[in-house]
Each structure stands twice: as C-alpha cells, then as structure tokens.
Amino acid sequence: MEGVPYETVDRAYESELATTYDSIKSYQLRFYYHGQWRPQYDRWVAMLVGLYAGAGKGRVAWNQALTSDMIYTQPVVHELRNLRAKTLLLIGPQVEAPDVFRKVLLAGLAGHESQK
C-alpha cells in the first residue's frame, strides 16, 4: 500500500496538543528545509509555537487535526482542474514519496492549462 497510514481525528488532535518548539522545528527541518537549518527560520517556528501555546491552543490543535484528516481522506485531486486562479504548484525532488505525490497531482492536472 502506498501513502500515509490513517490516523483518526481524535488521535491527530492528541498529537497536535503535544506540539512543541522542537517538534515543529524537526518537522520543518525535514519537510521544508531538507536538513539545512538557518537561524532565520526560527521565526516561523516561534510563530507556530505561539499559536499552540496561546489561549486558543485547543482550537488550533483541533483545526489542524481536521485539516490533516481532510488532506488524507477527502480526495481533491479531481477538483484541481476546477482551479481558476493562477496557481503555482511546487513539487521538489526531495518530497516524501515523490512518485506517489507526482502521480496524484499530475492525474488531477491532466489537460489543465497549468500543466503546459
């Protein structure tokens, strides 16, 4: 089976509540910066930590859990061709599971003007 293992919304919520500076930085280092951290990235971590540490942290965690569930369980690839606004898709060579990711996106963009 290809892809990411399913996680319930409740489990994702619990995971989100456990979010820390270190967990955010580790995630960003792996998925955004490919192991190359620079001091100027710290502000993005601090911004997210502030959201998770504030009075609304439960809402932030719940919204993130719902967003993750939507991404993983609600297929939107067939809707990509309905995009009307100019849209830039960045798919780098170091994306996790790049073949699966590219297949899904390209299937949704088949015949779309942005594929030209």
Summarize the structure.
The chain is mainly alpha-helical and 116 residues long. It is built from 5 helices and no strands.
Structural class, from secondary structure content?
Answer: mainly alpha
Q: What is the terminal-to-terminal distance?
A: 31 Å
How many DSSP-defined strands?
0
Low-confidence stretches: 111-116
Shape: globular
Binned strand content: under 5%
Summed over residues and divided by their number, the pLDDT gives a mean of: 80
Number of helical segments with 4 or more residues: 5
Number of domains: 2
Structure, explained:
Residues 111-116 have low confidence and may be disordered. The chain has two domains: 1-74, no CATH class; 76-116, no CATH class. Helix 2 (21-31) crosses helix 3. The two termini are 31 Å apart. The protein has five helices and no strands. It is 53% helix and 0% strand. By secondary structure, it is mostly helical.
Question: Which properties best describe this structure?
Answer:
mainly alpha; 5 helices
Topology readout:
Elements: H1 9-17, H2 21-31, H3 42-53, H4 57-73, H5 98-109
